[in-house]
Structure formats: structure tokens, C-alpha cells
Amino acid sequence: MNMFEIPVGDEQVSNEPVEIFQYIKDRNRNKVGIFVGVGTTGTYTIGWSRVKRPDVFDKKRGFEIAKGRAIVGSISNIPNSFKTDFEYFENRCKRYFKAC
Predict the structure, then answer these.
(1) Mean local confidence (pLDDT), 76-94
(2) Cα–chain-centroid distance for residue 7?
(3) Using CA atoms in the order 44, 20, 48, 24, what is the torsion angle rounded to 10 degrees?
(4) Distance between CA atoms of 48 and 37, rounded to whole angstroms?
């Protein structure tokens, strides 16, 4: 099989966890947080991370914190300012992990 052939019907569904993420921005379009969804087909958990003022958001550190919370399954105490973004991300996770 060369690199242009695509196998059809031989696809195997993997049970490896898959991750998706979304940055959260303030009204000035500065990144202030991140949501991370971790899961497999049909199941997922969401974690989040937020920077404290006056610190600057670090993408790598924020992702690690949010992923850790997703793995543990801790979504409590989501800041009120993140609620709308959380609802959007949760709907995105439902669609994504349904097809995963």
C-alpha cells in the first residue's frame, strides 16, 4: 500500500483517550483560560483552568491543569464568567465524542 491508498472498511475503533480543547478569552481577546475534553466514544469529562490576575496565561501550564481536572472528573466551581463558554464546549464535546 502506498501513501495515497486509503484503507476502507478496515478501520479499527481505538479506545485510547482523545483530547480536544478550547481557549477562553476575555473581552480584549486575551487568553485567560482553557477547557479540555478527554474521552472515548460516548464518554468524556471536561476540565478547566483559569489564570489569576495579574499573571499572564501560560498555554502549556493551563492545558496540564485542565487535563488533570478532566482526568479526575472535577468540573466543580467553574467561574460564572466561564458558564456560557462551558455550555458551548460541552455541546461541542457531545458531538465530538459521539462520532469519535
Answers:
(1) 90
(2) 29
(3) -140
(4) 9
Q: Which residue has the cell 483560560?
A: 33
From the CB of residue 54, how many other CB atoms can be counted at a distance below 10 Å? 5
Q: What's the burial of 44, exposed, middle or buried (CB within 10 Å: 0-12/13-18/19+)?
A: buried
pLDDT at 8: 45
Q: What is the DSSP letter of 8?
A: S
Give the C-alpha separation, 83 to 25, whole Å: 13
Asked if the bond preceding 79 is cis, omega within 30° of 0, the reply is no
In the sheet that holds 31-40, the strands lie side by side as 18-25, 31-40, 43-50
pLDDT of residue 14: 60
User: Which backbone phi and psi does 14 adopt, to 5 degrees?
Assistant: -95, 140
pTM to 2 decimal places = 0.79
